[in-house]
Write a structure and sequence with these properties.
Chain B: It is found in: Cell membrane. Chain B: Belongs to the binding-protein-dependent transport system permease family. The complex is a heterodimer of chains A (about 325) and B (about 280). Chain A has 13 helices and no strands. Chain A has about 325 residues and is mostly helical. Chain B is mainly alpha-helical and about 280 residues long. In chain B, α9 packs antiparallel against α12. The radius of gyration of chain B is 24 Å and the shape is globular. The chains are: A mainly alpha (about 325), B mainly alpha (about 280). Chains A and B meet through α1, α2, α4, α5 and α6 of A and α1, α4, α5, α6 and α7 of B.
């Protein structure tokens, strides 16, 4: 592989048998892992930690991008207070949580169902995988554009054909993107369309790595399929579920393109999630400090959620083992 | 679910003719997943009037009007080239660098390992919009605004947490004794890593690389704000060319064809590696 050829020379130089650097080499089990991790940690520090600290600085001051002439001074926790006292923040937080929970929940069960269907090893369905994966492969931007076309008043396929059905039933047109409640559910629907394949892929991989022995034992014991599913498949699938649900939750929490392109947070503020609110604060009202405080609060929420997930899943896995 | 039907060659697997409903469900899923995309691709080959008519038109004489507009009037091939360079380079760097970090996390039990692992993941938690302003200012100072190099560095850093997390799981699945026996035979650590571990890991690394490449190819928020002209990649270009005061649906369709053609082709060619690589070890032992 080209990757290995590329790095061979560098490593021969660095970890030569007799060189000074060899004392940090593979034989040193305390320092060597840090040597291996150093490039990653340095890059993440430069691009991850530094902007984070900078955000922390901005959030402690009063920076308005459109008014650079205002003297900057330290304002303590004022910006965080401003965020927490803003009813728009609580509205956006509620919308974000509602969106994330609904989308991830539906995606998980649909993805698991699909993965179980594919486990059946049917003839001639392998090629179907590609079709199923298409929504996930498309750039989020493209997904949003595609669905804008689907919901386009008039000739959009959804508007036209679903509209034909609802008119026949006497319900009139469905305002997919112009009614506050329906627009929100439309976005959940598109997110489910886009990311169920991801769940399917991750859970398929998890299912494939479950050993056969527990199933054979269950068969001998005469356990029913429902029981087998809950006592064998689900516990053994837990690690795969953990990583799939965490990644998806984190990404659903900060969905951006989809909402910005399809509804721009509207109608009104019905689909204004935290990320849309953040973009409005920072890039439309140029209130960089409030935006920075908001982004740090968002990050705390995501970290706490992930931490809880990891804790809950780890403890259950240990019990299961 | 029928009893134990998920097992290959299971004696109790239901005979194929009882599975017709599974085929119906799967075909339905395929149609739902594929039709919207197909429809937009069709729009790309329509002329302006056909693509925005009041009723859906399914049969039309194809027109290359929209492609003509994008390629010759807007010069979209330059954006295409930028996207190729940025996603290939950032994938190469993030996988090469992240691989060693993942290896260390999987193989060595050192103090603070779980903390490092979790900290790496938290780097994925910051909303891109949140770090946009600091990164913009930094890039401005460093002269990296609107350069391919800037995007490559940024995407490498963005993809690293994902690479590390995926590969750590895969490395854990490889028994340590394979490497140890190679090292007993007189190989250095790196030789053992290259000759034993890497070949076993190849499918997983390929799968991870495909994922990362797709993510880089699709990235929109940073590309929009950090590039303006020279280094503009496909996503912001498409946004700029197809969504204006009024949307030209056929231009949008053509743009979608151009940005997705490489992805579809790529995944079609590497589908087997993608699936087998992922199934090798999402699950930790």
């Amino acid at each position: 592989m080209s990757i290995s050829e590329h790095t061979t020379t560098a490593h021969a130089l660095t970890f030569g048998q007799r060189g000074f650097l060899s004392r940090f080499g593979p034989s040193n089990r305390t320092i060597f892992p840090w040597v291996l991790m150093a490039p990653t940690l340095i890059i993440l520090f430069a691009i991850g930690i530094y902007p984070f600290l900078y955000s922390l600085y901005i959030a402690g001051h009063n920076v308005i991008l459109s008014k650079p002439y205002i003297p900057q001074h330290f304002v303590g926790l004022y910006q965080y207070q401003a965020v927490v006292q803003d009813p728009e923040f609580w509205h956006a937080l509620r919308k974000t949580l509602l969106f994330t929970v609904q989308a991830v929940f539906i995606e998980f069960w649909l993805g698991l169902g699909l993965a179980l269907l594919f486990q059946r090893q049917l003839q001639g369905v392998a090629f179907m995988r590609l079709f199923i994966l298409i929504p996930m492969i498309l750039p989020p931007l493209v997904t949003a554009l595609v669905w804008r076309y689907m919901f386009y008043p008039g000739a959009g396929l959804m508007t036209y054909y679903v509209g034909a059905v609802t008119r026949a039933l006497g319900l009139g047109e469905i305002p997919f993107l112009s009614d506050p409640v329906i627009a929100f559910q439309t976005l959940v629907f598109v997110d489910v369309w886009e990311w169920t394949p991801f769940m399917f892929l991750m859970l398929s991989a998890g299912l494939a790595s479950i050993p056969r022995q527990p199933y054979e034992a269950a068969e001998i014991d005469g356990a029913g399929s429902w029981r087998v599913f809950w006592t064998i498949t689900m516990p053994l699938l837990r690690p795969a579920i953990l990583i799939a649900v965490i990644i998806r939750t984190m990404d659903a929490f900060r969905t951006y393109e989809l909402i910005v392109i399809m509804t721009r947070g509207g109608p009104g503020n019905a689909t204004t999630t935290l990320n849309v609110f953040l973009t409005k604060t920072g890039l439309e009202f140029f209130d960089a400090s409030k935006a920075a405080a908001l982004s740090l609060i968002m990050m705390m929420i995501i970290i706490v959620m992930s931490f809880v997930f990891i804790r809950v899943f780890r403890s259950k896995t240990e019990v299961a083992e | 679910m029928k009893k134990l039907s998920s097992m290959p060659e299971s004696p109790s697997a239901p005979p194929a003719q009882r599975n017709w409903w599974v085929y119906v469900v799967l075909i339905l899923v395929c149609v739902v997943n594929f039709l919207p995309y197909l429809r937009v691709v069709m729009a790309g080959f329509m002329d302006g009037a056909t693509s925005s008519s009041a009723t859906p038109i399914w049969f039309f004489s194809p027109s290359l009007e929209a492609f003509d507009y994008l390629i010759f009037e807007k010069g979209i091939m330059k954006n295409f080239f930028n996207s190729v360079v940025v996603s290939l380079a950032s994938t190469f760097f993030s996988v090469t660098i992240g691989m060693f970090c993942a290896y260390a996390l999987a193989r060595y039990d050192f103090p603070g390992r779980d903390d490092v692992s979790f900290w790496v993941l938290t780097n994925r938690m910051m909303p891109p919009v949140a770090v946009l302003i600091p990164i913009f200012v930094t890039f401005q100072t460093a002269g990296l605004l609107d350069t391919l190099l800037g995007l490559i560095i940024l995407y490498t850093a963005m993809q690293l947490p994902f690479v590390v997390w995926m590969l750590t799981g895969y490395f854990r699945d490889i028994p340590r004794r394979y490497e140890e026996s190679a090292m007993v035979d007189g190989d250095t650590w790196f030789a053992a890593f290259r000759k034993v571990t890497l070949p076993i890991m190849a499918p997983s690394i390929t799968a991870t690389a495909i994922f990362v490449m797709i993510l880089s190819w699709n990235e929109f928020a940073f590309a929009t704000f950090l590039t303006s002209n020279q280094a503009k990649t496909m996503p912001p270009a498409i946004m700029a060319y197809s969504i204006g005061a009024d949307i030209k649906w056929n231009v949008l369709g053509a743009a979608v064809v151009l940005i997705t053609a490489p992805l579809i082709l790529f995944v079609l060619l590497l589908q087997r590696q993608l699936i087998s690589g992922l199934s090798q070890g999402v699950v930790r032992k």
